[in-house]
Design goal:
heterodimer, A: about 350 residues, alpha+beta, Rossmann fold, 5-stranded antiparallel β-sheet, about 35% strand, elongated, B: about 300 residues, mainly alpha, MetI-like fold, globular
Chain lengths: ~350, ~300
């Protein structure tokens, strides 16, 4: 579809009673792009989606779909496709009637309707299910009917509200790829609301991480995962080791040495562009899979294995760091041959330590 | 490990022996005895009475039933009964559905208060509530005083002892049953269904007509049949507010007892009313099972 449109939110805000659900917020979704709104429950992601759909009207700001300002249009005038969290399929209609509903409302004649419903069910691989009742379908099939129903009217944009939340893990992973594939093929501008970081990482072109009614960071999955700006973003997208550190000085160009409060002897290396004041307090985030183990040496962080958990594709090590109360985590694909009482040193490549913008 | 040695047959043996089942059934005996003595026996007595007393002795066992069905006065009363019940049911539905819809969709925390307001009158005697309307509708009653005070009418309206007073009284008493029946079904309808209809291009009204209304048919059917059957059996409202203008079967039974004392005829009428009620219940059981929607 070449007529994909841009979605623009300008200064949208919303409060319910005394609760500020959404602080004034801007968001641009490029034509054909899939943007995920990721955050814990109550962060305002669903409110944002419901404002775009027209179920809630914002206190301030405008919603633009394409060139059209739809802020004051009712949901039925917005030409939106939406997949609901629990699918919201009509239980008194069969599969074909569910999919045809939007076409019927749009005044499409019967023959055309039948043909388009058939094509769409073919697309979501439910070709032979036209006459089935909704309660006869599995969760995954219901999910596909919901998608077909949302797409059959050729909507300008697609809204997905936790679309895979009700499926079991295996099916969810398969559907993530399938949904993504269909969205790419149609080239439809889409917004996905989810609290599942894996789903957001897998499916979207860009992720907007939300907390307490604000977008904290927006970027490609790699950007937000590898270069989180705040502790919240870093921790929400997976396990992260957060360290408070003091800058000691530049070791070589762009690589700085930092010291740790809990162990004055130890020192770590961090890649930071630009000048940083010596003695500055900073916060670091290091992903567990970036942590390395070595023989203890002078000036290294010393630690002992506290616990090991086998997680299927990797081993998760909980390391007790000498001098520190909070453990650090290390993920390894191979089992490490270290006895429990052995002291080792923890290290990382300077580039994998991310300086967070939070104040300490 | 032990289970493997015992084998699957052992695990499949039904644990409930006949002794256990019998012991379970014995719990129902007090209720059964009670129903037999105070419900089934009187009903049988009623059937016997309607064919063996009064005119039935001299003019044949089925004389009362023949009279009820073929005498133009009595068949007129049967028709009137049906008409009153039908109008009351429709009025209750038209008034009750919006209330239910409001309660479920918009009332929020006020819901409890509305339910209380609906149930509280049921705790007052129906006679008290009906006399209340007497006070309002009387020639010098509240309604006329207010309307005349507001200058809307020049002479008092003659509302009491008219069919309209009976309908108002019946709807007032019966609307809670309709509201509660519909509410319980509406509560089970996910608001997301209406929202998805809206997003798919349906206006508010169309979303309601094509999604919410068909899904609430069960509640409507239950409420309607309940109100219909209850109207069939009411006579106090007709007696106190109708002034003899609205004669239904139930009122006639009351009169057979208190005025003519023709017990056999009263019994026959009671049985006809009972058949009415049973037909309605059968209809309801069939309707609700057919229309029952599994979500």
């Amino acid at each position: 579809m070449s007529n994909a449109v841009r979605v623009k939110l300008q200064g949208i805000s919303k409060h319910f009673g005394t609760v500020q659900a959404l602080k004034p917020m801007d968001l641009d979704v490029e034509p054909g792009e899939l943007v995920a709104l990721l955050g814990p429950s109550g962060c305002g992601k669903t409110t944002t989606l419901r404002i775009i759909a027209g179920f809630e009207s914002p206190d301030t700001g405008n919603v633009l779909i394409g060139a059209k300002d739809v802020t004051d249009s009712p949901p039925n005038k917005r030409a939106i496709g939406m997949v609901f969290q629990n699918y919201s399929l009509f239980p008194h209609m069969n599969v074909a009637e569910n999919v045809a509903f939007g076409l019927k409302m749009g005044g499409v004649d019967r023959d055309d309707r039948t043909r388009r419903v058939r094509d769409m069910l073919e697309l979501v691989r439910l070709g032979k299910f036209e006459d089935r009742q909704i309660h006869q379908l599995s969760g995954g099939q219901q999910q596909r009917v919901a998608l077909a129903r949302a797409l059959v009217t050729n909507p300008t944009i697609l809204l997905l509200d936790e679309p895979l939340g009700a499926l079991d893990k295996n099916l969810r992973e398969r559907m993530q790829f399938e949904l993504r594939e269909i969205q790419r093929r149609l080239g439809i501008t889409s917004l996905l609301v989810t609290h599942d970081q894996e789903e957001a990482l897998t499916m979207s072109d860009r992720i907007a991480v939300m907390s307490e009614g604000q977008i904290l960071q927006i970027g490609t999955p790699t950007e937000v995962y590898e270069r989180p700006r705040t502790r919240f973003v870093s921790e929400f997208l997976g396990t992260s080791n957060i360290l408070s550190a003091t800058v000691r000085g530049e070791v070589r160009s762009g690589i700085w040495a930092v010291g740790f409060d809990f162990d004055p002897q130890a020192q770590g290396l961090v890649a930071m562009p630009g000048p940083v004041a010596t003695g500055a307090q900073i916060q670091l985030a290091i992903r567990p899979e970036q942590m390395r183990i070595a023989e203890p040496a002078d000036g290294s962080l010393r630690a002992q294995v506290q616990d090991v958990v086998f997680r299927g594709s990797y081993y998760a090590y909980e390391m007790a760091v000498s001098g520190s109360d909070s453990p650090m985590f290390l993920y390894s694909h191979a089992r490490l041959a270290i006895p429990a009482d052995r002291q080792v040193s923890l290290s990382w490549s300077p580039e994998s330590a991310i300086r967070l913008s939070d104040l300490t | 490990m032990n289970r493997e040695r015992v084998g699957p047959e052992a695990a499949a043996t039904p644990r409930k022996s006949w002794r256990y089942r019998l012991a379970n059934m014995s719990w129902a005996i007090p209720a059964l005895v009670f129903l037999l003595v105070f419900f089934v026996a009187p009903l049988i007595g009623n059937i016997v009475r309607s064919t063996t007393e009064g005119a039935a002795v001299t003019s044949g066992a089925s004389i009362y039933y023949q009279k009820l069905l073929f005498d133009s006065y009595y068949s007129g009363v049967l028709l009137q009964t049906f008409k009153v019940s039908l109008i009351t049911t429709i009025a209750c539905l038209v008034i009750g559905y919006p209330i239910s819809y409001f309660m479920v969709r918009y009332a929020g925390r006020w819901n409890t208060l509305i339910v209380f307001c609906l149930i509280a009158p049921l705790l007052t005697s129906i006679i008290m509530r009906t006399f209340g309307w007497n006070v309002i509708f009387a020639r010098r009653g509240l309604m006329n005083v207010w309307l005349m005070g507001a200058g809307l009418i020049s002479r008092p309206l003659d509302t009491l002892n008219q069919p309209i007073a009976v309908y108002v009284g019946l709807v007032h008493v019966l609307v809670p049953f309709m509201v509660l029946s519909i509410t319980s079904v509406l509560q089970g309808i996910d608001i997301g269904l209406e929202e998805s209809a809206r997003v798919l291009g349906a206006s508010r009204l169309r979303a309601f007509l094509s999604v919410t209304l068909p899904l609430s048919v069960d509640g409507i059917a239950t409420g309607c049949i309940l109100v219909f059957v209850l109207t069939n059996g009411s006579f106090l409202t007709m007696l106190l507010l109708g002034g003899g203008k609205v004669t239904t079967l139930a009122l006639l039974i009351y009169q057979q007892f208190s005025v003519t004392q023709d017990i056999g005829f009263a019994a026959a009428m009671g049985n006809v009313l009972l058949v009415f009620a049973l037909l309605c219940l059968a209809l309801q059981a069939r309707f609700v099972r057919r229309g029952g929607i599994k979500t």
